[in-house]
Sequence to fold (171 residues):
Amino acid sequence: MTTLETSPAIVPDFGEATPTGRKLAIICSKGSLDMAYPGLILANAALGEGVETHLFFTFWGFEMINKKTMGDLKFTMLGNTATHIPQGLGGLPGMTAMATSKLKKSIAELDVPEIPEFLEQIVASGGHLWACRMSADMNHLTMEDLYEEVEGIISASDFIEKTEGAQLLFI
Fold:
């Protein structure tokens, strides 16, 4: 008679970072495509280093977590002298669409995910997403309007309490 012995499970080590005791709080206050990525990239990098990471979406940053807008953020050249294009051209019809398309293409070429996928990746890595109570109230938005992984709509005071001792970045 043959018996089968159970072998211990082999769990591969992917070099995942262990928690460091550090915290990072990122306040995302802008809703344009070019201003959405810095906070997400920094959050992703911090999570990769084992840093507890919280993102707080307020004012125009709500565009990043609003189901209706999060997949369609725009980039405008108006007022952005870093584009090195004459400012008068930014106001011409079609320029925002062209600039947005060009920026999305450049980001995709670097294998950086689009906003919804990037948020999903951050949450899967242990990041926390919070929506600002005042901004939600101003825009008449509820949890049903927001990306499903947002943990809650909280006050600024609640966010400060949750992220006590954290490094703070305001974007």
In short: The two ends are 68 Å apart (CA to CA). The chain has six helices and five strands.
